[in-house]
Amino acid sequence: MDGIGGFPRAEAGGSGTDAADGPGADASGAAAPDPDTPRADDVPGAEAPPGRDGGGTSDGSADGNTAPGPDTPGAPDDTAADVAAVHEPALDRPLPEGVRHRVVAVAADAFGGFTFAELPVSLRPYARFTPSRRVKYAATALATALEGDPAFRHKVAGKLREAQPELTGALDAGTPPPAADPLDVAAAAYLLRPAGWAKLVTTAGEEAQRAHAERADEETLRELAKLREEVQGLHTQLRSDAVRARAELDAVRKEGDSVHRKLRSALSDVKRAEAAQRKIQAELDEARATAAQDKAAAESEARRLRTRLAEAEAAVESGRRAAREGRSIEDVRLRLLLDTVLDAASGLRRELALPPRDTLGVRPADTVDAVAPGAFSPRDIATRALSETDPALLDQLLALPQAHLVVDGYNVTKTGYPSMPLEKQRLRLLGGLAALAAQSGAEVTCVFDGADLDMPVLLAPPRGVRVLFSKAGETADELIRRLVRAEPPGRQIVVVSADREVADGVAKAGARPVASVLLLKRLARV
User: What's the pTM?
Assistant: First the structure.
């Protein structure tokens, strides 16, 4: 009857010998796996069927497989080995490391030949691992299962019998082959547990340790011989290096002697050069003296020539003076004639009793009959007056000759668009002033307060607009007053600011104050 998941389940209440008497029993006494039963390598993470927790069945057999009985065919040696192992003394020390590793490797190789149900519970998580990964990650679990689970050890021993029949047969006969590897003999003895297996394991471990020590001694001897060869080579190299160093020292000494000779030659050349330099210096001093004499003679000649030039210029000036005096006489004669004519005209005006020219009441054009324009009354003049907030007033002021518009920058921008950042305020105002300057042709100056600035503002002023920042310790209002005072009296200056103090100050200086709202309205039309 099949269990859960399709695994074969042993019938409860069996004696454990009937399962091994079937035709599928192997040499170790374990029931051979059914061809349709999944193996440990083929079932990832499958759960044990009900009734097999802890690796046993209801009748106490491990992993659902009945342990081979004394009468089970194909496994008399294992049974005898177990009976003999009861009377054999157990190991009084841990397995040697080499023997333990070989036992774990044999168990890992035999791992894949079991079904998932045949594995102990502690080894089922490693069912899908490769043999090498089982050795790496499940070594402790395998060693524990082999020591604490005789049924699992018998199964592994059965796989070992199939894989190495000659070695296992010799161990069963009590005559292990002398040429076999001691580790293989010890691992097989640990799994098969023949008579005297503990002694075989201990002997094999000691033999392995002795072989390891011999290999270590051989390695040490080879390393020592290699070191001696290296030391001998170093001695040879040192001798050759010493010979080469002595040769190089001789070469350096020869080169030093050559350098000393060259140095002495160079010193003699320097002395000859110094003598030549002193000779040249004497010649140069002589040439300088000659040049000084020539220069004195040239200066004397130049003074003589300048004297002659001054005499010539004096003669020319006297000639010009004589010419001017002659022309002055003619001018005096002409002036006397003109005065005579003017006096005659004045006498004639008095004789004819003519009124002065500026007192004539009627002009010839006044005698022409035409309609004269009407006169303005106070009512007509009142209708022509402009409001202080009318943008046309600013146009009329800028239309005056040589008008100069001075703008308090931040006063205007914080009145018109205070929510914008200062940089955008400046750019917007300067753009409008550039258009206004182009339309009116007036001079435009925009003043910003720069008293709190740590460094100059990087700004490219637009065409037709002068941009100024006040200096440290000075406000924009003070800069505006200085600009107004710098202009000549009589020039039309228009100052745009909503500050009453600024407006009063520039008005006293002769400028025309205008509110900031008026400029904002005018710029809105640009």
Answer: 0.32
